[in-house]
Amino acid sequence: MSRVALLAASAALLTGILIVPAFAAPDATAAFSQDSAWSSGYQGKYTITAGSSALSGWKLEFDLPSGSTPGSYWDATLSSTGSHHTFTNREYNGSVAAGASVSFGFLVSGTGVPTGCKLNGIACGSGSTPPTTPSSTGPSDVPPTPGSARVAPYIDITMPSPSLVSASNATGQKVFTLAFALGSSAGCVPAWGGTVPLNDSRIINDVNALRASGGSVIVATGGAMGPYLEHVCSTSDALYNAYVAVLNAVGSNSLDVDVEASIPMTVVNTALKRLQDTRGTTISYTMRIQGQDYGMDPFSVQILQDAAAKGVNVVVNPMLMNFGYTGNWGDAMVAASNATLGQMRQV
């Protein structure tokens, strides 16, 4: 945000002219809506619309009542002080042409809705509307994971280098997937890589430093090695408790299940459904690709069908880096993506 020099501020007092930051177009508006809701929370969205002047950046702030707190978010960064929450544009959506709109979303634990909305320091005005009636969402309607995680690279969190912060500083990437939370020698007791305690100080400090710089993390289970939590936790309740323990350890509410082996889908999806009902957790499945013209393997499709039947909303990440193909690799990846999308439309 630009700073107004003392001389300019003095001139404003003498002449009665209000000086506002360059990006604070007074006729811009922000409209709130609820895209979906459940017994313990909801998915919210603000749509910011520039007025007759373009925006070169935006900051939207509001309050939530006691008992309601934001969790995962996307297409914005978040800072909170008590019940006051401030969302600021990302590097790719700060510039908004006159009359154009951008939006960002977030999950809330609790049923309280935003009050006292301000856009760039000015009341949101007529654009700040009451919550809309929540719509019913399907498995493909869940938003990206926190911090606009359209890209959230896996990082082996058991390794001390590179740190999350150093990787972020070197690449500009703000969202990372922590790989992997696994079963330990104690069975259904999660640990990083199956050996490193969840509260390991290096990992916790690294995650906190990333978050302080505007980043966020997703927790990944499964993977290529194991032991899977999904195998060693024999009941959905035990698995749910293991998921909660890992998420709480790093202050995340986003979970990715990387399926590279058979899993008890009924147990897993029952635990995931409970996570979404009680915490509003953003869930993704990372699935194997069988071929460029086929898409996901049959077992992956069955897992998604079971998830849909149980009402679990999931994002699907196809493993486009590892499958048999012919011809051009880039064309094969596009074909595999399109085939996966076709499968998802049938779920």
From TrEMBL:
Biased composition (Low complexity): 126-140
Keyword Signal: yes
Domain CBM2: 21-127
GO biological process terms, semicolon-separated: carbohydrate metabolic process
Entry keyword set: Signal
InterPro entries from the UniProt entry: CBD2 (IPR001919), CBM2/CBM3_carb-bd_dom_sf (IPR008965), CBM2_carb-bd_dom_sf (IPR012291), GH (IPR017853), GH18_Chitinase (IPR052750)
Any GO MF annotation of the entry: hydrolase activity, hydrolyzing O-glycosyl compounds
Signal peptide boundaries: 1-24
Residue ranges that the Swiss-Prot or TrEMBL entry lists as coiled coil: none
Region of interest (Disordered), ranges: 126-146
Name of this chain's protein: Carbohydrate-binding protein
